[in-house]
Specification:
Layout: H1 3-9, H2 12-26, H3 40-47, H4 52-64, H5 71-82, H6 91-110, H7 117-125, H8 134-153, H9 163-188
Helix pairs in contact: 2-3, 2-6, 2-8, 2-9, 3-4, 4-5, 5-6, 6-7, 6-8, 8-9
């Protein structure tokens, strides 16, 4: 299934966790002394829908205190502000979809520059990664894998089932992007 089809078929738990995972991968390496995982509260809200509103508020607050935040953080903040407080609403699907696009867009920004960037992200989400660089195609595959993992456990699964594996996949994606950004900075400097 394509990424678009998986998002369309995902349950509320899958949408919440895939959105949180996408945002997690968009955050840069935390500055020294900063909270190393400002979205950690959001993961508890993915496991238990009753906790979602409070954990969403905690994640928003954790990002709001970051001074001189880079563009990626400002974009994540904006999406957290748009996240619905009710996980059962169709607005959650729209939000998770926007998180997917943001993650791919940020990866594209660190991949080879392309003139057809918007079209490329759309094609990758529809299942056609031809011409995508390694960061974008890797991020697309990661999003598909996460949604497939979440679909296997489903909304009726025990609290937290599958979320640890999703966090592991997302953390690996963070490392890949941060390494690419660091390598790119060394080449420029």
């Amino acid at each position: 299934m394509s990424l678009l089809e998986l998002i369309a078929a995902a349950d509320a738990r899958g949408l919440a966790a895939s959105g949180a995972a996408c945002l997690d991968r968009c955050l840069p390496q935390p500055a020294e002394g900063s909270e190393p995982d400002p979205l950690r509260p959001l993961w508890a809200g993915c496991a238990d829908p009753r906790l979602w509103p409070d954990r969403l508020a905690e994640a928003r607050a954790a990002l709001d205190v970051l001074p001189d935040a880079p563009e990626n953080v400002r974009r994540v903040r904006a999406l957290l502000a748009e996240a619905p407080d009710d996980r059962a609403d169709e607005a959650l699907r729209t939000w998770a979809d926007a998180c997917s696009v943001l993650a791919l867009d940020i990866h594209l920004g660190h991949d080879a520059v392309r003139a057809d960037a918007t079209e490329l992200v759309g094609r990758c989400r529809a299942g056609d990664p031809r011409g995508a660089g390694p960061l974008v195609s890797g991020e697309t595959a990661r999003q598909v894998r996460i949604l497939e993992m979440l679909a296997e456990t489903g909304d009726g699964a025990p609290t937290g089932a599958g979320l640890r594996q999703v966090r592991d996949v997302s953390a690996e994606g963070q490392r890949v992007l941060r390494a690419a950004v660091s390598r790119r900075a060394r080449v420029r400097g």
